[in-house]
């Protein structure tokens, strides 16, 4: 039971100890949007880093573009709604919505300029040097043009819809996320404009067949040559087919992003069919107001102003870049068979042998996962350990006649999930299968709706969560009939049940048969699928309700320990740190002298190293080959009182107040020691992927000390997982 009391500005522990939470001065809180933009600047630095393989650099550049599309649709759209509502109250950083928008816009335009320059002046020329070229129509010879014209007529022309704009045909609706050409025409009737939408159903990069003999220039002999043309450039070269009888004066690409925050009104109980409600909401995503109009430098200013007006946008929605639009489509180049330009392939190892290599006397013998879990917990560290262990756990449960119930939460499932067939196979008269599918997982809503309907058609009990809350926790419960009665087996994790992202996202999961943990997970599912109230749990820390108080209590206990021993220590690893109460508690702990290490991949609103406030706090961000996604919370220096928690929750208001989250303890001492004494300190030693946050809010690379070799934590974890498996020859490619 929770023993802490949080009253106004104090965290009170039993025995009379209390921790005062100081007021949060605006100067001590970094704006979350500006911090998010800085995160993308760190990603862009990886695209600029010449020690990275070339196609991996291109991938990082594409990620930045994709990140910004989603951010504009949700976060900047929300800020614009505040402006439209006339809100003037300052945020925790002291900025009014108007001041925040101005600062954000300057920062975004600056980063977009850097991004475009990197692609234009570095990545595209480097690709050309390695035989990968994006050409223009003028670069092509007669035969090449003929082949592309044939391809245009057969595969592209039938899809296109030219839309004239005149007094009888008003400016068409421009859908969210669409890439378009604004075409300037001239005929006997005078000058006019038309719009052509570039089909998103086709590859953005059109392959140009080899030139053959007589090519003027190209890669070194023996290289694989791959040439492409932007789809919009190919369309532009054939506009005469779309507008016969008109002179094509020019064409200009433009890209539109709209407000796409379509979360339904959860407080409205009049509509109890969330599935239907989400379908209706999704249909409106394409019609939100414009939040970004992106054009390149070719668009004349007068046409630009006219386009802004036609879209009912404003100058503050306009962003001009000197480079390709929609550059997230550069990700298509990752499909090229060019291993010389990519990271070496990674083969994750099975985590089952982490427990004890003696479990397998014969390497061909398949371990019984349930017997292993009755003996010990198993820690999975993805992508270093394969996601196949999770699939095996669920598949074993589905095939086991002694299993009587399987329950699972699904947030971002992926398109080709190996888990869903196992859940369907498990459903029979003797096995209850219940799945909570979160329909409001942003930008995965349609995929989740499809999977939910598929599961229901096969007789699986499907629930959609709690009103007003997103179910973000990652939990699986298997109930098995055994000689001594029913036993619960659980999987809890920091990341989604998504086999695809598990290859590139760093996450941690726990398989366990601990009785108290299993009982807590049962209670959690009862709350998610029935009318049971979220309550206190023996082991889990659960949001909403008491998760923030649990963190505040644990921080206060560490301050008390520091007063007694001088050895207080906190080490948190997360994606985002925004929650004001937690930040105030960390400042309070630092003022007491507690040493605090924070590993924050993305947004960090806390300002470290400020004299008198955060002198003992160090903040670092790790951005590398794998996306750091796990949340790990270590309370205490090495010793019997130290505890380690993992879970799905970042320290943000949305996670602590508006989502169902589960944070769970690591109680196996061997696994706790491995994670807290080996893995987490390795993150603190990294000098390859790490940036450090300075008191002024800027980030700088963490470099090795003079004479030291660079240390790459992700490479170390890859090698360590293979070593700990005990049988690296059993490595499996999931």
Q: How many domain units?
A: 3
The name CATH uses for the topology of the largest domain is polyphosphate kinase like
Using only C-alpha atoms, the radius of gyration works out to 28 Å
Q: Unreliable runs, pLDDT <50, ≥5 residues?
A: 213-222, 264-272, 354-364, 727-734
EC number: 2.7.4.1
Catalytic activity: [phosphate](n) + ATP = [phosphate](n+1) + ADP
Protein name: Polyphosphate kinase
Keywords: ATP-binding, Kinase, Nucleotide-binding, Phosphoprotein, Transferase
Fold and architecture overview:
The chain is of the alpha+beta class. The chain has three domains: 5-29 and 542-702, Endonuclease Chain A (Endonuclease, Chain A, 2-Layer Sandwich); 32-341, 2-Layer Sandwich (polyphosphate kinase like); 352-535, Endonuclease, Chain A (2-Layer Sandwich), CATH 3.30.870.10. The protein is 34% helix and 22% strand. The chain contains 19 helices and 30 strands. Strands 17, 21, 22, 23, 24, 26, 27, 28, 29 and 30 form a ten-stranded mixed β-sheet that branches. Strands 13, 14, 15, 16, 18, 19, 20 and 25 form an eight-stranded mixed β-sheet that branches. A hairpin with a 2-residue loop joins strand 18 and strand 19 (485-493). Helix 2 (54-84) packs antiparallel against helix 3 and helix 11 runs parallel beside helix 12 (419-426). The protein is globular, with a radius of gyration of 28 Å. It starts with a strand and ends in a 9-residue tail after the last helix. The model is unreliable at 213-222, 264-272, 354-364 and 727-734 (pLDDT under 50).
């Amino acid at each position: 039971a929770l023993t802490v009391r949080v009253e106004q500005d104090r965290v009170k522990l039993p025995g009379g100890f209390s921790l005062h939470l100081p007021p949060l001065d605006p100067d001590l809180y970094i704006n979350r949007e500006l911090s998010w933009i800085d995160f993308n600047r760190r990603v862009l630095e990886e695209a600029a880093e010449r020690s990275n393989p070339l196609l991996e650099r291109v991938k990082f550049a594409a990620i930045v573009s994709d990140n910004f599309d989603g951010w504009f649709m949700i976060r900047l759209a929300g800020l614009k709604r505040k402006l439209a509502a006339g809100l003037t109250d300052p945020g925790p950083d002291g900025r009014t919505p108007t001041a925040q928008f101005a600062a954000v816009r300057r920062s975004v335009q600056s980063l977009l300029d850097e991004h475009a320059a990197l692609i234009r002046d570095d990545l595209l020329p480097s690709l050309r040097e390695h035989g990968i070229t994006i050409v223009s129509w003028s670069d092509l010879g007669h035969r090449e043009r003929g082949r592309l014209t044939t391809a245009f007529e057969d595969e592209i022309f039938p899809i296109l819809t030219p839309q004239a704009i005149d007094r009888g045909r008003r400016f068409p609706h421009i859908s969210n996320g669409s890439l378009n050409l604004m075409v300037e025409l001239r005929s006997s009737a005078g000058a006019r404009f038309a719009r052509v939408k570039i089909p998103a159903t086709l590859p953005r990069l059109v392959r140009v067949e080899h030139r053959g003999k007589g090519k003027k220039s190209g890669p070194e002999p023996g290289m694989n040559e791959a040439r492409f043309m932007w789809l919009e450039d190919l369309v532009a070269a054939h506009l005469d087919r779309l507008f016969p009888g008109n002179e094509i004066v020019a064409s200009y690409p433009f890209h539109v992003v709209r407000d796409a925050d379509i979360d339904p009104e959860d407080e409205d109980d009049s509509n109890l069919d969330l599935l239907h409600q989400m379908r209706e909401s999704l249909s409106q995503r394409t019609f939100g107001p414009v939040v970004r109009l992106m054009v390149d430098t070719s668009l004349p200013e007068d046409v630009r102003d006219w386009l802004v007006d036609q879209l009912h946008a404003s100058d503050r929605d306009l962003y001009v870049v000197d480079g390709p639009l929609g550059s997230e489509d550069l990700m298509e180049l990752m499909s090229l068979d060019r291993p010389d330009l990519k990271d070496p392939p990674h083969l994750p190892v099975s985590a089952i042998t982490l427990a004890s290599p003696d479990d397998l006397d014969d390497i061909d013998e398949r371990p019984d996962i349930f017997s292993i879990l009755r003996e010990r917990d198993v820690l999975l560290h993805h992508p270093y350990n394969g996601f196949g262990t999770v699939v095996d756990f669920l598949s074993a449960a589905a095939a086991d006649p002694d299993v009587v119930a399987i329950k699972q939460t699904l947030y971002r499932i992926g398109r080709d999930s190996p888990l869903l067939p196992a859940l369907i196979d498990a459903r029979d008269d003797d096995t209850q299968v219940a799945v909570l599918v979160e329909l409001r997982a942003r930008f995965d809503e349609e995929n989740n709706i499809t999977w939910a309907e598929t599961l229901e058609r096969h007789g699986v009990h499907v629930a959609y969560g709690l009103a007003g809350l997103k179910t973000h926790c990652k939990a699986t419960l298997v109930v098995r009939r055994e000689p001594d009665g029913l036993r619960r087996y659980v999987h809890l994790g920091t990341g989604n049940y998504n086999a695809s992202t598990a290859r590139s996202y760093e996450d941690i999961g726990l398989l366990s048969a601990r009785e108290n943990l299993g009982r807590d997970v049962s209670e959690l599912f009862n709350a998610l699928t029935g009318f049971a109230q979220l309550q206190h749990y023996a082991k889990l820390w659960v949001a909403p309700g008491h998760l923030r108080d649990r963190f505040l209590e644990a921080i206060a206990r560490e301050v008390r320990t520091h007063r007694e021993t001088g050895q207080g220590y906190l080490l948190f690893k997360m994606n985002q740190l925004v929650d004001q109460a937690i930040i105030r508690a960390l400042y309070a702990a630092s003022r007491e002298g507690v040493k605090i290490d924070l590993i924050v991949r993305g947004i960090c609103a806390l300002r470290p190293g400020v004299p008198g406030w955060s002198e003992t706090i160090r903040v670092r961000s790790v951005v590398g080959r794998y996306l750091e996604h796990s949340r790990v919370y270590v309370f205490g220096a090495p010793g019997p009182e130290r505890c380690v928690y993992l879970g799905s929750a970042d320290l943000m208001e949305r996670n602590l107040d508006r989502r169902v989250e589960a944070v769970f303890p690591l109680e196996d001492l061997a696994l706790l020691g491995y994670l807290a004494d080996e893995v987490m300190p390795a993150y603190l030693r990294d000098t390859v992927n790490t940036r450090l946050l300075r008191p002024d809010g800027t980030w700088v690379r963490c470099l090795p000390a003079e004479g030291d070799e660079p240390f790459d934590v992700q490479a170390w974890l890859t090698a360590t997982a293979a070593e700990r498996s005990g049988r690296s020859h059993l490595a499996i490619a999931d």
